[in-house]
């Protein structure tokens, strides 16, 4: 019996080897030709079916970013038979040089059965012209897809582009392929996850003759899930109006925000660029035109900080009221055209001097001396804390990438910079009027004034209202909007509003250019000196109320002159346009039925009531639903 | 210490032939032809270096005096267990914690664990004065430790190999066969639990076999009731699993349920092997391989390259070589006089045989993809080293025959 187990081993060995031989015989000899035909036709492969990216609409369902059909050229590197012919064909017709081609083939060397997108957005005429020639190259194929169409130049939509090597390394686990598009900037990038959808997959299994092969029972495909469309708070009418009135050649921005919701109605930064140029291969000329000193790619609303000038004065004023340094009627040192602090004379912008003023009048005249004097009664770190609490040193949290935050110095900053924490009155005086080290983004100023208009409630600004498509998610569901109370009492709020009212209404106010029939106006001008040019940066931030808060407008113009003379008139036009005094706002186009679900259709009348900008005009409805927006017809 | 008269040149010859075939096929597997452009990755010469290192290690192993070798086994086993624990804290590669890498060299402690566990188990159960029950429990305990750690990694395939080696060692320990039956009976009970007719048939067969082995009524009834209980409780466990856990288990046994994942690989391997037909497409000519349908064709799916490029004839040659090798190994086991070494050699035999079977079976769609490489052929340093060393251990035992007992 000693060799019983050896015999067991022998039996097991023989059985296993015979099993394998039998299976191999079946696979290679009996079915060999069948598998050979599959391997030759080579038509079992996984193909990605790209999901359609979500589109972007304004608050009245008018398109801002849409998808349009495009033709793309794909290469399957495993099928290349004559590399030289291919590279000369591509170089001749599509100006893809051999080096580029080799690089692409090399990058794809482990997935030679997958298609690589080698060129997108090929003109249709070219597709027709070349479709016959291309049949000589089985490795090449045209395939229709979609590309992005940006309806107007702007800075908030951003644009998409082919995923680059760095992004691919980072996101490849999230089901991106080397052919994928990814949001590069703006909303396209911020809401990439919502817009993108989920690519489908398809297993194609036909042989060279087009016969279906029965390797899987059925052709398996996972249909793509299209991305969600975005409904923005942007109002295309207001946006295009703000674009039109923007002085030609000027640099700067206009932001209009709905006070009630914090949603941004218009977002203009000039000079701007057309995102569509990024949808093709960028030529050196186009690239050069984007890299001029005017910086058209720069989003001046959130990506740049500027000295706020006098629009910063409400911060200092309210802190004075809160710290009980002053009250409604306190008159500080009279303005004689300037104030001597230490051994330096700080001038008021108005050389003859404003005389003795209360805080309301100081706002009205934008008297510098009042604020020089006021800030000298306060600690720098208190002013810093107050500025921070007003949101002017923090990012606003708008739903766009790359936002910058403003800056206000504290004593630590000066200790580091000049090595002392005393004798800062000169610096403080400058800070009081929004000069010196203090910097803000126009959006921060806008959000701050919206908070004043809201009765002291700060609310996170945003561009997205809700999504549309497979899921309806509103902005609050993505992330609750931040909101907090500005650090001042009701009486301070009352006095501040009185001052801002005086700026636009009282005789001698710096923004008398503001005149909006049918609404109460508030505002503050600013003319910030800066190193960038001789002329001051022109600022205006203000808001209007009817029986309820309406909109807040911030106008910022780089090196354009005084805020009252240059910026306020633009804001005035927007207020009046909004109120319907200049020209009726286009009646909202009927909502296209495909955008409505059954339940929405039922509740639609209610929704219209809630759309503030659309229907709450003081002007009766007009007969023709659409009036061309003709700038020359403006008064 | 190499005794020329006792050294088994034939077994060593088969071993070298298999490794050589591996190098040739890896050369092809790491070569890609697109049009007239050919690129070769550096796998094949790395494998040649690994092969040289592995054979040198065998030479050194043969030189080591037997007492020292025997002394090292248990400490090495303990160190290996520690390595298996440590490896769980390494960063995951493809979602599993299997590798240590120092200076670009990857070491997989589960590879050495297989060989060391076999040697330690053989040592433990061949001690004198052990009852059969004790032998079984010691063997199970010593195997369960590394198996559990390897399951955590996770590496299901490697754990499976342990089970087969353990069975072979118990068979070689000449335990009565009904013990073997009792050990594998719970596994069969779990498998049959999905169909009530199968449960009944299985329990009847079990009772019959146990009765035939002249076991007492008590043992028979306890074991059959226990198995019945396992068969009945399994569905309860199954339903207690989360949906995704069920899916994962199902797609292991039925890869076609996951055609975009595991199933896709197996289908591509099958097409590669099948399209090789009788004579194959010729060395370096495999189209499936050149198109990179199989991402791991130099490791786990190396057989598909052989099947595709050398056809049925080539596959037969390879299988024949494996058959001769294993047959020689069985005969050699019979030559070993010391019981402990015989048991160890049997474990090594089973460990190599089942890796070979599972890997080739996986390449031709017989067995689910489990990530087990083909011994001596697949690319991979630690795998080649420890498989070769395992054969080296048998060669060393043969050299010592007749010296003791």
SSE diagram, text form:
The complex is a heterodimer of chains A (635) and B (405).
Chain A: H1 4-30, H2 32-41, E1 44-49, E2 56-57, E3 63-76, H3 83-94, H4 98-107, E4 115-119, H5 124-130, E5 140-150, E6 160-162, H6 165-171, E7 181-183, H7 186-190, H8 192-196, E8 200-205, E9 221-222, E10 229-232, H9 236-245, E11 252-258, E12 264-270, H10 284-290, H11 313-322, E13 338-341, E14 344-347, H12 359-365, H13 368-375, H14 380-389, H15 411-418, H16 425-432, H17 442-453, E15 457-459, E16 464-468, H18 475-478, E17 483-485, H19 490-505, E18 520-528, E19 537-545, E20 549-557, H20 563-579, H21 598-610, H22 612-615
Parallel strand pairs in A: 2-10
Antiparallel strand pairs in A: 1-8, 2-3, 3-4, 3-5, 6-7, 8-9, 10-16, 11-12, 11-20, 13-14, 15-17, 18-19, 19-20
Helix pairs in contact in A: 9-20, 12-19, 13-16
Chain B: H1 9-29, E1 31-34, E2 37-40, H2 43-63, H3 66-86, E3 100-102, E4 105-107, H4 109-125, H5 132-152, H6 156-172, H7 177-192, H8 196-212, H9 217-240, H10 243-253, H11 262-275, H12 287-290, H13 302-335, H14 339-363, H15 381-399
Antiparallel strand pairs in B: 1-2, 3-4
Helix pairs in contact in B: 1-2, 1-13, 2-15, 3-4, 4-5, 4-6, 4-14, 5-6, 6-14, 7-8, 7-9, 8-9, 11-13, 13-14, 14-15
């Amino acid at each position: 019996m000693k060799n019983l187990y050896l015999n067991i081993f022998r039996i097991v060995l023989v059985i296993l080897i015979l099993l394998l031989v039998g299976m191999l015989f079946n696979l290679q000899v009996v079915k060999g030709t069948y598998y050979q035909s599959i391997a030759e036709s080579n038509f079992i492969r996984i193909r990605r079916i790209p999901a359609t990216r979500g589109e972007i609409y304004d608050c009245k369902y008018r398109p801002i970013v849409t998808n349009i059909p495009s033709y793309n050229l794909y290469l399957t590197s495993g099928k290349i038979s004559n590399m030289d012919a291919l590279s000369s064909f591509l170089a001749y017709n599509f100006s893809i040089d051999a080096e580029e081609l080799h690089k692409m083939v090399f990058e794809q060397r482990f997935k030679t059965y997958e298609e690589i997108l080698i060129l997108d957005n090929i003109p249709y005429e070219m597709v027709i012209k070349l479709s016959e020639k291309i049949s000589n190259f089985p490795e090449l194929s045209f395939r229709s897809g979609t590309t992005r169409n940006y309806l107007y130049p702007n800075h908030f939509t951003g644009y998409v582009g082919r995923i680059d090597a760095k992004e691919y390394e980072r996101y490849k686990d999230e089901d991106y392929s080397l052919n994928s598009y990814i949001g590069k900037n703006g909303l396209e990038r911020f809401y990439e996850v919502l817009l993108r959808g989920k690519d489908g997959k398809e297993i194609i299994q036909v042989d060279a003759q087009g016969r279906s092969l029965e390797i899987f029972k059925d052709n398996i495909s996972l249909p793509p899930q299209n991305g969600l469309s975005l409904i923005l708070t942007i109002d295309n009418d207001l946006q295009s109006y703000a674009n039109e009135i923007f002085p030609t050649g000027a640099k700067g921005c206009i932001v209009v925000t709905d006070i009630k919701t914090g949603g941004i109605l218009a977002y203009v930064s000039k000079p701007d660029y057309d995102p569509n140029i990024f949808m093709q291969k960028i030529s050196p000329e186009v690239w050069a035109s984007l890299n001029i000193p005017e910086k058209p790619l720069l989003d001046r609303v959130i990506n740049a900080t500027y000295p706020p000038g006098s629009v910063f004065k409400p911060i200092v004023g309210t802190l004075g009221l809160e710290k009980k340094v002053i009250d409604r009627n306190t008159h500080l040192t009279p303005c004689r055209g300037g104030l001597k602090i230490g051994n330096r004379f700080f001038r008021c912008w108005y050389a003859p001097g404003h005389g003795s003023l209360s805080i309301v009048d100081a706002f009205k005249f934008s008297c510098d001396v009042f604020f020089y004097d006021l800030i000298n009664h306060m600690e720098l770190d208190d002013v810093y804390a107050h500025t921070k609490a007003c949101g002017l040193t923090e990012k606003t949290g708008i739903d766009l990438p790359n936002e910058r935050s403003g800056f206000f110095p504290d004593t630590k900053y000066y200790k580091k910079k000049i090595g002392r924490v005393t004798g800062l009155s000169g610096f403080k005086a400058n800070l009081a009027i929004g000069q010196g080290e203090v910097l803000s983004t126009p959006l921060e100023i806008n959000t701050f004034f919206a908070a004043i208009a809201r009765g002291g409630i700060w609310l996170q600004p945003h561009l997205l209202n809700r999504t549309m498509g497979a899921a309806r998610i509103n902005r609050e569901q993505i992330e609750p909007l931040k909101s907090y109370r500005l650090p001042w009492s009701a009486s301070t709020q009352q006095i501040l509003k009185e001052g801002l009212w005086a700026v636009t209404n009282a005789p001698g106010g710096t923004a008398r250019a503001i005149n909006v029939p049918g609404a109460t106006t508030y505002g503050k001008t600013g003319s910030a000196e800066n190193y960038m040019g001789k002329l001051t940066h022109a600022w205006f931030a203000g808001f209007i109320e009817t029986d309820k808060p309406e909109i807040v407008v911030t106008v910022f113009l780089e090196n354009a002159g005084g805020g009252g003379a240059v910026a306020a008139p633009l804001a005035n036009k927007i207020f009046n346009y909004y109120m319907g005094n200049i020209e009726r706002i286009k009646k909202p186009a009927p909502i296209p039925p495909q955008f409505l679900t059954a339940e929405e259709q039922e509740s639609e009348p209610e929704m219209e009531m809630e759309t503030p900008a659309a229907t709450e005009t003081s002007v009766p409805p007009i007969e023709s639903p659409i009036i061309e927006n003709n700038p020359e017809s403006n008064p | 210490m190499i005794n020329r008269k006792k050294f088994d040149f034939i077994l060593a010859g088969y071993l070298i032939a298999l490794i050589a075939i591996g190098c040739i096929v890896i050369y092809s597997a790491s070569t890609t032809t697109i049009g007239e452009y050919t690129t070769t990755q550096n796998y094949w010469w790395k494998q040649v270096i690994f092969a040289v290192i592995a054979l040198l290690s065998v030479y050194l192993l043969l030189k080591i005096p037997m007492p020292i070798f025997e002394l090292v086994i248990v400490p090495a086993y303990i160190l290996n267990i520690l390595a298996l624990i440590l490896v769980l804290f390494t960063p995951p590669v493809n979602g599993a914690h299997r590798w240590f890498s120092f200076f670009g060299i990857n070491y997989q402690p589960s590879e050495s664990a297989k060989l060391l566990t076999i040697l330690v188990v053989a040592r433990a159960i061949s001690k004198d004065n052990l009852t059969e029950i004790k032998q079984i429990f010691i063997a199970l305990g010593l195997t369960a430790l590394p198996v559990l750690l390897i399951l955590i990694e996770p590496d299901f395939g490697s754990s499976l190999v342990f089970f087969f080696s353990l069975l072979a060692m118990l068979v070689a320990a000449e335990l009565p066969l009904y013990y073997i039956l009792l050990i594998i009976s719970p596994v069969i009970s779990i498998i049959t639990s999905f169909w009530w007719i199968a449960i009944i048939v299985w329990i009847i067969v079990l009772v019959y076999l146990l009765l035939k082995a002249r076991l007492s009524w008590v043992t028979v009834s306890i074991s059959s009731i226990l198995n019945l209980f396992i068969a009945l409780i399994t569905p309860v466990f199954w339903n207690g699993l989360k949906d995704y856990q069920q899916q994962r288990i199902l797609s292991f046994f039925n890869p076609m349920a996951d055609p975009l994942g595991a199933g896709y690989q197996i289908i591509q391997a099958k097409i590669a092997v099948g399209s090789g037909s009788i004579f194959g497409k010729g060395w370096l000519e495999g189209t499936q391989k050149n198109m990179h349908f199989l991402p791991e064709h130099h490791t786990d799916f190396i057989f598909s390259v052989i099947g595709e490029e050398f056809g049925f004839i080539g596959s037969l040659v390879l299988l024949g070589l494996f058959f001769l090798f294993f047959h020689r190994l069985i005969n050699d086991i019979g030559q070993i006089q010391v019981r402990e070494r015989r048991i160890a050699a049997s474990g090594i035999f089973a460990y190599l045989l089942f890796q070979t079977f599972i890997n080739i079976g996986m390449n031709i769609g017989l067995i689910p993809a489990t990530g087990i490489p083909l011994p001596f052929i697949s690319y991979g340093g630690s795998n080649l080293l420890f498989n070769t060393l395992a054969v080296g251990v048998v060669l060393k035992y043969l050299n010592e025959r007749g010296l003791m007992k």
